[in-house]
Amino acid sequence: MPDETHSPGDKPPSRPSPYAGRWVARLRGRIIAHGGTPEQARRAAKKSRHKEVPEIVYMPASEPLSISPLLSVVVGALPPEQPLYLVGGAVRDALMGRVGHDLDFALPGDALRVARRVADRIGAAFFPLDDERGTARLVLIHDDGTRDVLDFAAFRGPDLETDLRNRDFTLNALALDVHAQALFDPLGGAADLRAKRLRACSPTAFTDDPVRILRAVRMAAAFDLHIVPGTRQAMKDAVPGLSRVSPERQRDELFRILEGPRPAASLRALDMLGVLPVLLPELSSLKGVEQPKPHVNDVWAHTLSVLGHLESILAALSPKYDPNTASDLVNGLLVLRLGRYREKFAEHFAVSLNTDRSLRGLLFLAALYHDVAKPLARTTDENGRLRFWGHDLEGAEMAARRAQSLHLSNDEIDHLRRIIRNHMRVHFHTSRMDGEGKPPSRRAVYRFFRDTREAGVDVILLALADLRATYEHTLPQDTWAAALDVSRVLLENWWEKPAETIAPPQLLNGRDVMQAFDLAPGPLIGQLLEAIREAQATGIVSARKDALIFGREWLDEQAAKRGG
């Protein structure tokens, strides 16, 4: 009997559910062995029927895979005889019923030539990534602004199975023949996915590339996976190697963790694995640093709690709002007071200071570092009460230095610094609102956004999460309501009254004030213009003539102070 390999088009007479998505070996219509690849099925059959040659057949999955419609476009751009395999995350996501915009392909031979052909046929931009290793990227931008990214790479090794075995985790070591729609799963990744297991492809997976430690934690959080003991131990053993990973790769994986689901759980896992002293060494000193009441946790536990509450707050204020996130009174009040700004929050986070990283990720990094200077700033006042004077200012600089070491852009570092430097200001106004019933004045609103700019929105969100994490279940309803009222006043001015209190129209410029008051160029000009802008924001000045009168009075006051 000839050795045959069939695909779904052959329509085998039976599809036993235990073998769906597997390759089976059949003799006279009876299944005698199975495997994740044709070769595995063939080898398994040979052990029991070494003298007979079985028929190797792929048994299609019981449900069709959820794959981007772009896959059929790619297939249509290629001749039928061109081998091509969809690999990695796209196949994993398809098995989970998810459709992604990033497709990775592997193939034997000249991947650059094939990628160029596909790019020309579908109208995608072509970018060679590595001529030596034969990798290229295609980017297809749609009318609505969304984009699909397609990566093409030559096999890493002599064949597909070798390529898959050299990958990071079994649930990423999956391939789909794009022509036959047949799955190749040499390491049992599909079974691991069903069982919610995260398992490394090989014992050396993490020493080969230590950044996979971060990736494992991220994937475990994203897909609710259990990291098997052997893989977890291999991760711990490989941690020292992280110091040899480039700052850019460390940064990219860190941001994927911060931007993904359950960042607090991920950071806790990194801590248990011993990663933080290598990746974010400043955070280790937060453990065991006690805080006075109303704090209920030490600084490290508080920091992790802030991350968790921040995630909950952002979910409750998302346009894709799920009422279940507001099932408790605290989130219910949040939605009641600030829910009208859902679209505005979405627009805020849609802006990016870097095409590869999001403002959301930067906000979570700020949350992670907002109290980083407390161990250094710890002191006691005259009453013996524990204080952390100046931790916001010093923490901003510590976070900026870490951001520089991770090679964040100058704009990102400035934004990060503004969030942490100003995160206590909302608490100050909340205290006044709670204790005295006094909302932020127009001058306070102006100065807040003058110093924070666009980061003011992030400061408000961080402050709310910080307040929740400070009190946890002991949070007084009045204090929370006061914080929400303060937040609403600030956001209302930022989004609804910017011309009144945030950035009033300019009445005078530098040349005007120099001519009107006979001033020479210098710092005094900028100080005077800022004083006029603040007077506009507070309602004292509303016209050019008012600005000139105010300017003369302000200059006279400054002269009197200098004379005094």
Tags for this model:
4-stranded mixed beta sheet; single chain; 564 residues; alpha+beta; Hydrophobic Seed Protein; 27 helices; 5 domains; elongated; Beta Polymerase, domain 2
Structure explained in plain terms:
The protein is α+β, with helices and mostly antiparallel strands and 564 residues long. The protein has five domains: 4-59, no CATH class; 70-195, Beta Polymerase, domain 2 (2-Layer Sandwich), CATH 3.30.460.10; 206-273, Hydrophobic Seed Protein, CATH 1.10.110.30; 341-502, no CATH class; 510-563, no CATH class. The chain has a seven-stranded mixed β-sheet. Strands 1-4-2-3 form a four-stranded mixed β-sheet, covered by helices on one side. Helix 18 runs antiparallel to helix 19 (410-421) and helix 20 packs across helix 23 (477-496). It is elongated, with a radius of gyration of 30 Å. Mean pLDDT is 91; it is low at 11-16.
- The helix/strand class is alpha+beta
Rg calc: 30 Å
User: Total helix count?
Assistant: 27
Number of domains: 5
Determine the fraction of residues in helical runs and give it as a percent range.
40-55%
In this structure, how is the largest beta sheet organized?
7 strands, mixed
Kindly state the number of beta strands. 15
- Contiguous runs where pLDDT drops below 50 for at least 5 residues: 11-16
How much strand content do the residues show? 5-15%
Q: What is the averaged pLDDT score? A: 91
Terminus-to-terminus distance: 109 Å
Shape: elongated
Record the strand order, biggest sheet: 7-8-9-6-5-10-11
